[in-house]
């Protein structure tokens, strides 16, 4: 059984216990060089709960991205409508932190329980097949079936060879959100390489400079397979940053305890970067496109770097019990909110409203509907929910949610973490 360090409160001074990897692969306590109390190995409960809220906020942003219904058509922002500018600011700017924070959290929680042994690697790979690959296959199969039925009902030919059909089904199904799950599986496969890069200071600096610089300039290393790149530089960079952050856990805790004035300043800077980028290039597009210049590209990437930190600091102060409960259903919402649901939703709303404004209605309706469905399935059909989500069943958060200004015990239970 994997044992993680535990922090208790005694006499007002918390004892900290660190479990380090011995040569035999077992965990042994390691004391500080001065012989005093060991150093804490794990994140606090507050930080773990904050990452649960981060996944909730990021899921909301992803739904907004996919239901965005109108964008500026020209580079000049003065020629765009307020509807276009509003959607671009929220879903083309602010919401673009969603993928980076997902990738960062995935890297952090993968490597925090990774001991570097081949057995641990195989175990984690097997776990991700159950929690990532199988949900990918189930949702992809549903989307592919619906796509075929629509094509047949519209009398459109299906011009795919058997190889193209299988490639579309298994590697790039019509549900666009699944690209991130495919990236995660690739990252898990190459995780030992990422761990090696992050464990050596000189190598880590060089790797971070190369990968970070490539992401900053939107230079993609990996070729496409079935229309999607094998791996996006953004997911690689932030997954690796999640790995490297384990040696700087105090920074994560310190960011969460930022003051309200710091958070407000962060939101101001973040919003300003997005707004300036829109002013310079309203029709900015970076997703498999190069509709951008160097100035607006750097502003966009800078807004993501600032936004990821600000979103985390904000989430730290949103650790309420009911939000943690909602957060436990976020993976289900991520899986089901896109095709075919999006196609059905648009066909319904197009009958009674201007399609350009549909996102303002559909985004909240889809979010409420999907989260409500997740809670109901988790309560009444837990087996079906577990099969679809790889074991992620929504559960009410414990009543003793850790306050932001009190040191508390670290629980070894993955269920208490709220992050899978």
Name the poorly predicted regions.
1-40, 405-420
Q: Approximately how much beta-strand content do the residues carry?
A: under 5%
Give the count of helical stretches. 18
Taking the alpha carbons of the first and last residues, their distance comes to: 17 Å
Largest beta-sheet details: 2 strands, antiparallel
- The domain count comes to 1
Pfam families: Acyl_transf_3
Family: Belongs to the acyltransferase 3 family.
Region (Disordered): 401-420
GO cellular component, one term: plasma membrane
Structure write-up:
59% of the residues lie in helices and 2% in strands. With 420 residues, the protein is mostly helical. It has one domain (45-389). A two-stranded antiparallel ribbon has the order 1-2. Strands 3-4 form a two-stranded antiparallel sheet. A hairpin with a 5-residue loop joins β1 and β2 (27-29). Residues 57-377 form the Acyltransferase domain.
Keywords:
420 residues, mainly alpha, two-stranded antiparallel sheet, 4 strands, globular, disordered C terminus
Can you give me a brief rundown of this structure?
The protein is mainly α. It has helices at 45-66, 82-91, 98-111, 118-153, 162-171, 179-189, 191-199, 201-216, 233-244, 249-256, 260-280, 294-316, 321-327, 330-336, 341-349, 359-380, 382-389, 414-417; strands at 19-21, 27-29, 224-225, 228-229. The protein is built from 18 helices and four strands.
What is the secondary structure topology, with strand pairs?
Layout: E1 19-21, E2 27-29, H1 45-66, H2 82-91, H3 98-111, H4 118-153, H5 162-171, H6 179-189, H7 191-199, H8 201-216, E3 224-225, E4 228-229, H9 233-244, H10 249-256, H11 260-280, H12 294-316, H13 321-327, H14 330-336, H15 341-349, H16 359-380, H17 382-389, H18 414-417
Helix pairs in contact: 1-3, 1-12, 1-13, 1-14, 3-9, 4-6, 8-9, 11-12, 14-16, 16-17
């Amino acid at each position: 059984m994997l044992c993680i360090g535990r922090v208790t409160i005694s006499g007002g001074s918390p004892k900290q216990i660190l479990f380090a990897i011995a040569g035999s692969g077992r965990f042994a306590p390691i004391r500080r060089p001065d012989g005093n109390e060991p150093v804490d190995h794990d994140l606090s409960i507050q930080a773990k709960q904050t990452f649960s809220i981060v996944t909730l906020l990021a899921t909301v942003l992803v739904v907004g991205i996919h239901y965005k219904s109108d964008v500026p058509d020209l580079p000049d922002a003065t020629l765009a409508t307020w509807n276009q500018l509003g959607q671009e600011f929220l879903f083309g700017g602010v919401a673009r932190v969603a993928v980076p924070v997902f990738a960062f959290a995935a890297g952090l929680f993968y490597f925090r329980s990774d001991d570097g042994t081949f057995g641990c690697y195989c175990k984690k790979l097997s776990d991700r097949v159950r929690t990532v690959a199988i949900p990918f296959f189930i949702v992809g199969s549903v989307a592919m079936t619906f796509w075929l039925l629509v094509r047949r009902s519209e009398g459109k030919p299906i011009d795919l060879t058997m190889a193209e059909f299988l490639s579309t089904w298994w590697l790039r199904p019509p549900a666009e959100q699944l690209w991130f799950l495919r990236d995660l599986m690739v990252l898990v496969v190459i995780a030992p390489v990422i761990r090696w890069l992050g464990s050596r200071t000189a190598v880590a600096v060089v790797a971070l400079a190369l990968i970070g610089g490539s992401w900053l300039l939107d230079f993609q290393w990996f070729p496409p397979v079935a229309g999607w790149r094998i791996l996006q530089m953004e997911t690689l960079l932030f997954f690796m940053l999640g790995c490297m952050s384990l040696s700087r856990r105090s920074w994560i805790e310190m960011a969460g305890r930022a003051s309200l004035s710091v958070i407000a300043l962060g939101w101001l800077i973040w919003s300003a970067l997005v707004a300036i980028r829109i002013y310079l290039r309203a029709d900015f597009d970076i997703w498999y496109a190069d509709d951008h210049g160097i100035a607006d590209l750097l502003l966009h990437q800078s807004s993501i770097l600032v936004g990821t930190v600000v979103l985390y600091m904000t989430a730290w102060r949103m650790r309420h019990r009911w939000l943690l409960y909602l957060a436990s259903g976020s993976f289900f919402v991520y899986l089901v909110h896109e095709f075919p649901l999006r196609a059905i939703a648009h066909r319904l709303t197009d009958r009674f409203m201007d399609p350009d404004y549909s996102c303002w209605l559909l985004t909240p309706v889809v979010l409420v509907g999907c989260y409500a469905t997740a809670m109901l399935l988790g309560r009444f059909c837990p087996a079906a929910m577990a099969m679809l989500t790889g074991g992620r069943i929504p559960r009410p958060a414990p009543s003793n949610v850790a306050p932001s200004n009190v040191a508390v015990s670290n629980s070894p239970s993955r269920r208490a973490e709220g992050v899978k």
